[in-house]
Amino acid sequence: MKKIEENFIESWELVRKNGRNRYALRTGVLWSVFTAFLTKIFELSAYSFKEVYFTKSFLNYLALFILVGIVLFWQFIWKFNEKRYQALKRKQENESNS
Q1: Angle formed by the axes of helices 20-40 and 74-97, to 10°?
Q2: Which of 31, 16, 15 is nearest to 71 (CA)?
Q3: Using CA atoms, how far apart are residues 40 and 51, in angstroms rounded to an integer?
Q4: Beta-carbon neighbour count of residue 70 at 10 Å?
Q5: CA end-to-end span of the chain, whole Å?
Q6: Tens of pLDDT along 68-94?
């Protein structure tokens, strides 16, 4: 088993230990804030930073992204990582039995 795979198993076990809700909040919010700011960055060529980011419109936009991130995005990442974790654990078990 590769070192990167072993590292993933160790790190994902810590994430699992901390729980899904904590992961959902952290991952969902981080993804949301990053994505919301990134998608609006193109408007900076036509408007000032203040006009783009310090508006009620942006706060609504950010709230929508946070909602999507917390409700949907984290679940996709959790399932993806959980599937990878289970496959690597089987691989690790098979290698130790060989």
Answers
A1: 130
A2: 31
A3: 11
A4: 19
A5: 12
A6: 988 888 899 999 999 999 999 999 999
- Rounded distance between C-alpha atoms, residue 57 and residue 75, angstroms: 27
Whole-number Å distance between alpha carbons of 40 and 24 = 24
Give the per-residue pLDDT at 70. Answer: 86
Residue 82 buriedness (CB in 10 A; 0-12 / 13-18 / 19+): middle
Q: Taking a C-beta distance cutoff of 8 angstroms, is the pair 44, 14 a contact?
A: no
Tokens matching residue 59: 């706060």
Lookup: tokens for 56: 């009620």
d(CA 57, CA 55): 5
